[in-house]
Amino acid sequence: MLSRTDDLALLMGRVFVAALFLPHGFHKLMNFWSFAASLGAKGVPYSNAIAVLAVVTEILGPLTLIIGLWPRWTALVLAVLTLLKIATTYRSGLWGAVFLPRRNVELYRNLQIADLVTTIPSVTFLFPTDLII
Length: 133
Prior knowledge:
mainly alpha; 7 helices; 77% helix; globular
């Protein structure tokens, strides 16, 4: 059983991760058609449907993390979404993005977000407090 401080720490971690996604989700929602058009310009098939899925994921995912509903699955979906964003953005220049780190700060920020999203919600399941010495 988790103590109150453990519960509070996990809640704060989930809130911080949600704060990374919610503003971007609302921005994409408010500028939906330009976001869908940018996906289409990058060659993404079914750009309108993908845009709907991305916006719904970036808004509902953080909200489910905040309330603690399915934190592992939500974290996995958000991490996959982040990796898909990286693949879409750096599709033609991913090799150069790895070897030119100063030019690609956004890539490394997204990789850190993917790592953070998968780590924070699942720490309790990986390391139960009764097993930590």
